[in-house]
Amino acid sequence: MNRETHSPASGVRPRPVLMIPLRRCGSHALRLRLNFNPAFYSPYPLHIVDFMPIVPLYGDLDDDRAYFRLVSDVIGLQAASMVKWPGLVFDPVDVFEAIRNAPRSVHRVVWELLLRAGEQSGARVVMDKSLDSVHYADEMMRLFPDMLFLNVVRDPRAQVASMNKAIIHDFDTRLNARTWVEAHRAADRVQARYPQRTLTIRYEDFLADEEAVLKRICAFFDIEFLPRMLDVAHSAEARQISRMSALWSSNCFAPIAANIDKYKKVLSMDEIATIETLTSEYMQRYGYERLTDEHAPVDAGALEAALAASDIGRDEAWRELERANFRDFALRRHRAEYLASVRARMERCAAEQAIRGAAAPAKLDELTEQFEVTD
Fold it and tell me: In the chain, where does DSSP find H-type helix?
């Protein structure tokens, strides 16, 4: 797996890594520790999954106008992110010109930003912690055949309990358990198709022995394990994000192994039975012992009611977040409003294009010198 550090002369870029398959698995804890190695770079993720419903509205990406607009909007999403990438400003013109002749995809745009950021930091490995992108793994492998995958498994009961109180997920145990299963089924496909490029770890094993698990990951990435990875309290980013959101408040401390069973205090036995029923295959595979014997009924008709109740819970969570942590609220709202504004604009563009009818893809002149905006 040895790769050179990128330099303009060598043309070798950092190796891309995608962490999969679902948030609230302890992913920040791993990312923050690995970032102590200067050969590794993983910024706060874009979570491009939230942008994906908008992508079809851009139409034919062979049209330079559509692709340039997409490039500009993805850069805008990065700028609207809750946690900024220090010292980085992306120019849509420069990014578009750099990738205009490569296979076109929103994922190619995202990874261009990530790779540029990694190059600026001198990294040999760049990891995207946008775990939900597991559902687009095949497309990313076509774009980057040397991509690696870090598959992080967490006890579904603990993970669903964490998801239930996170504004990024649903406010219903059954809905989040179904999301857990869908994500791990997608991870199964990744492991089946790319077994040599996938490393699976259990978060509980990391809690039990941080050093051993971090050494496994570092060996897989072909980077050096550094003892300071075990002292996350010295991570400036960990301290920063721990103050920004209650979801990240524990990231500047060593993990507490006793919290493995914390879910027992917040989930009812009916909820635990539901999770264990839906995730039974994975619990057995990854060695999580069941607490219940019965199999909870899976009533498809109850899902609609669960969705409605979850929406009410989300509205209440937004109001509580505004009261309890206004900075977190405002930053999350800003990102959500950015996505809503892009969607509204692209819906108008798509409607106008439908009226005009199909046309040959437009081509923008290639720029051979620095582009300047004049008054």
Answer: 27-34, 64-79, 92-99, 106-121, 137-143, 156-164, 173-193, 203-208, 210-221, 236-244, 263-266, 269-278, 280-286, 302-324, 326-356
